[in-house]
Amino acid sequence: MIILxxxxxxxxxxxxxxKDGRRILSNIIAxxxxxxxxxxxxxxxxxxxxxxxxxxxxxEQALSRAGILLEAVDAxxxxxxxxxxxxxxxxVNYAKGLAFAQGxxxxxxxxxxxxxxxxxxxxxxxxxxxxxxxxxxHTILIEVRDYNVYHVLGGTMDDAAGEAFDKVAxxxxxxxxxxxxxxxxxxxGNPHSIAFPRAKVGEFSxxxxxxxxxxxxxxxxxxxxNAADVAASFQQxxxxxxxxxxxxxxxxxxxxxxALAGGVACNRALRAQFENVCTxxxxxxxxxxxxxxxxxxxxxxxxxxxxLQQGPQKNWDMDVYPARMTAQGDK
Length: 331
Ligand code: KG4
Ligand code: ZN
Prior knowledge:
The protein is of the alpha/beta class. The chain has helices spanning 33-36, 44-66, 85-102, 111-117, 161-171, 178-186, 209-221, 227-253, 268-280, 290-293, 297-308; strands at residues 2-7, 12-19, 23-31, 75-81, 106-110, 129-134, 139-146, 149-155, 257-261, 284-286.
């Protein structure tokens, strides 16, 4: 089954062609970084406008890179939440138009479940497994009980991990997007030089706003701070908590595989920390290559493939759901 995936939830316009949910034939990603950089963050209205300009061309590219015609697509999958409402609407309406014109099924994909499915491409991972999704909007622990059964164990009570990276980057005067910059700068710093706090919140919950405040206070008190040490120590505080809670959840619920997902899963310290702790705990670790950690349409097509296994879908009245995923509602 050939699925064309579309992703426009934030500031990446992406289209991808995926075969049988596991093989990427193309995955085209147009980043809007240069549009938002002068503002130090994503400007929702500009993101939506840029998606409108890019989506047609990016989709054509995805089809031509995959070497197929639009008529050869068996179904369409589009991210319909969470994300920026205007940005999501562009992808959803474009996908509706394509699917309707071709008379083919259309599925709305949960962006975070899509991130989890980025782990299904490069290995033979199969549910059940535990996933930690760390992105710009989410920090969430999910039990993937089956291909279509996702259960949220817990998430952040305030800032998401990526949000914390981006805010600390701003405090350090680093350019947007901040996460990769903190990662780079931290390479030259000592992760144990500053004792930033590790938030003690619920068993499977996270909190990063206190850590961000601690960094702010440290910078105010220490005018001659070493930026690389601050970046490395902040990063260490984040990755230690993420790893500790994930391992605890895996052991408590008897999972033997852990899958990382989301943009922050590109972070080198995070990947190294998980490699260490998973080896010690005798857990299998899965991490997508960096380009599949950040937003992309291949992951949306992969998730859509499993939804389509549940039966044909048309969804012409599909809406968008901008709100963050929480532990309240099981799926
Ligand atoms: O998953 P993603 O591409 O978009 C969302 O769904 O939010 O994640 C973007 C987030 C941003 O906060 C970005 O700064 C962060 O991922 N990020 C990183 C790294 N690469 C991207 N954070 C830390 N280290 C990185 N190398
Ligand atoms: Zn994302």
